[in-house]
# Entry
Amino acid sequence: MTFDRRIKIAPSILSADFANFGQEIRAIEAEGADWVHVDVMDGHFVPNLTFGPPAVKAFRPHVTSFMDVHLMIAPVDPYIEAYAEAGADMITAHVEAGPHPHRTLQAIRATGKKAGISLNPGTPAEAVEYLLDLCDMVLVMTVNPGFGGQKFIHSQLDKIARLRAMIGDRPVHIQVDGGVDPGTAPLVAKAGADVLVAGSAVFRGGSVADPGVYGKNIRAIREAAEAATR
Ligand SMILES: O=C(CO)[C@H](O)[C@H](O)COP(=O)(O)O
# Structure
């Protein structure tokens, strides 16, 4: 993947039909998704449980774009290799997941995968200042992680702008996740985000039988974000 700062839409399959992941992934890609975002939750770091490495391995053959795996788990280091072997293209860990996020990013890079670091809404931008040379992406959570369909937290816009300034010319993406829709997409894009994760706002109203709705939803988010950065 070559680095570019154009707007990328990464639907979160947390909002997909859990009985149909293969078809859902193929449908969102056919309808314009740039990346596929996989939310891994452990029932400990966040109050919900989702996908272990075997599930991610099962998704892999259906993904032709880029599989971005967001680990909302603690501890995280013991599981990095397993998610890398399962086929993640990028692995994102939380800065709050343990005392050594620098070591965690080194461990992700050692697998040959792209490395991301994520911040919960209560964590300041400065928590990743000395990690930027070790990562390919900073993920700003715009909801408290654990569930789809929550309300966007507006205070995070200032954090995105601070990170954009802190990152400068480094080839580091800013991803946002939580409550992203055509109303909030322009705000995050203007603040400096380039990878927009959206679950409910992509899957709402559609299905594998009616995938055109996914395309319409993806285009609405992309167009709103791009209009704000022109
Ligand atoms: O990481 C997540 C929750 O922890 C989800 O990716 C996020 O909430 C997206 O869902 P929605 O777009 O419905 O808010």
